[in-house]
Here is the input.
Amino acid sequence: MKFSKLFTKTIKEVPADESSVNAQLLIKGGFISKVMAGVYNYLPLGLRVLNKINNIIRDEMNATGAEELFMSVLQSKETWTTSGRWDTAKEVMYQFKDGSGKEIGLGWTHEEPLTEVAKHFISSYKDLPKAVYQIQTKFRNEPRARSGLLRGREFYMKDLYSFHADDNDLNRYYETVAGAYAKAFSRIGLDAKRTVASGGLFSKYSDEFQVLCDAGEDTIYYCSECGYAANKEVAAELEIKDKCPKCGKGIGEKKGIEVGNIFKLGTRYSEPFGLYYTDKDGAKKPVIMASYGIGPGRVMATVVEVSHDGKGIIWPETIAPFKVHLIAFDGKTEEAGEIYVELGERGIETLYDDREDKTAGEKFADADLIGCPIRLVVSTRTLQNGSVEIKRRASDKAELVKIEEIGSLAR
Here is the structure.
């Protein structure tokens, strides 16, 4: 992509009410733009990052045997009344009447509608287990919309739901998904701790995946010796004070950003919706369920919160909008253009700053702000040696490499 052709430009000013690092840097870099509190547009650079995050998540969910689907955002009152959540969800669910007077809600989760759909396809033990997921826009009437993409009213959610004949099968798949979450976050570049949390209405405990960060809203007790982690909201119940309940070593207290959660739902939804199956002996039993969530936009914001410096974002290579940021100086656009073409032929995603009306300082500043992993500079000085200057975004060290060696970047 040539910088001169980008739909967006970097900007110096951000909305006065944006105090979070992720919002400031993503807006300045042209990744997102603000619509209103808790609502953002994903611009071309931001969508490239989001799609890469989604594809990693999709890879790991597919590996568990789950199938992808896509459900309607519009939810009928009748469906939510069946579970008893239409009235209790009013605080978070956008509810309205259409032109005919029918009451409708915007989905902020999909346990109810998916259980209703599953009734058409699950009736025997032979139909189990099943697991389906989607990556979809959700809506939540969040009164405290803040912190950029970390707490929004319109947001992306990967929500997976599994259906089982018994607790043993549920527990097996639950651990499989927990492992898939760990792989996905690692590939994205986040150190997400599996954290014991409250199970709410569904079970005694659930599991959150927390990234330790000062920008987080949750307080996490974390043991650096064995890796045990628990949300402070369940600390008293687990008798956590100053020692790890798992290994007995000292335990610390840190802030965390929740990037994922998994819940064992039991029969909370299957029973009211009449989702039953017939077992091998002909007995009718309720299907046992679980749900598993990841917020891709929240993940994107978390990466920015934990991976930046005073100049801008430092993207992990796996989700960076481009691998290489190529810059031409001293009018060397022809030579740089040839390198740009070669990189493209080798499948190396490159953002080429071909602008002739910007100073060296402006180009460097934009490269640091946007945060691609590798910066290449073509100038009179580098070409005298038949070279280009290469610098990694996370390093202060720059060096010259021969032009014929830049193909190694593909590795």
About this structure: The mean pLDDT is 95. The first helix runs from residue 21 to 28. Residues 142 and 257 are 17 Å apart (CA to CA). The chain has two domains: 8-71+110-309, 324-410.
